[in-house]
Structure formats: C-alpha cells, structure tokens
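haha ok so turns out i had the wrong file open the whole time. this is the CORRECT one, sorry everyone. sequence first:
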Amino acid sequence: MRVDLILVLAASLVTVPDRPPKTKSDPVKEDMKKLEGKWSIVSMESNGRTYPAATLQRLQYKLEITRDQFIRETRGRKHAMTFKVDLSKNPKTMDLTTNTARPRTYHAIFKLEGDTLTICQAVGRGQRPTEFASQGAQRALLMVWKRDKP
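then structure:
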C-alpha cells in the first residue's frame, strides 16, 4: 500500500508541468489594447488652420476607444463609430464607419506615442492622408489627443 502511494505521487510529479504553457501573444490585439481608453483633445487643425484652445474647450471634444467602438463626444453628444486598423502599414491606418442608416467610412492614419494619439483623417470622401498634415493637396483633419488619467 505504501509503495502504491509513493508510485502515484511520483507519477503525478512527472506529469504536472512546473509552469503554465506559453500562450502566443497577438500583436494586433496588444496594439489595439493600447488604443483603448478615454482621450482629451490637445490640438486640432483643418486645411492648415489651427483651432484656438478656447474653441476646443467650448466644443468639449472627447474621445473614447473601446475594443470595437470609436466614440467621439462634442458638447455632451456622442457619435459612435466602428473602426478597423491596419497595423502592417506605415503609417498605421484606421477606417471609421458611422453607425447610421446610411453608413459612411472615413479613412485615416494614426500614430500612438506613449499617451499621445495623433489621427489624421480625410475630410469628406477624400483619399486617406499619407502624412500627418492638414494642408496641401490632401484635405484632412489633424487631431492630437492626450490619454485621460484614471
């Protein structure tokens, strides 16, 4: 009986791994997780014109990014969109689609540097911007956001 107990204990030690198996990390999910959170507008320009800080404060422009929602808020009114990103491109791309009866997709590029998110979005049905600028041949809206502290 004692030998049987020792054999069972020895067998259990051999078959139980000493650490959990490694799970493969998904770089896309990891980068998407970095985008999640609440953001406040720092600066915005359109067609080369910079919006004054007082205007941005009056607009109360906010942004919340969840796993699958991109929610812009202006003066307390929320506008939710779905979004898709392509992290393989340089600069990284983002497509924002409105949740309306007639969905509309806006093409953008973005970069995330620490707690600063820069988005350059085509105005109207324009082509996706190729650089982080709002003037010149591309009509774009350039926005810089800062992550809100919890």
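The mean pLDDT is 84.
again sry for the mixup
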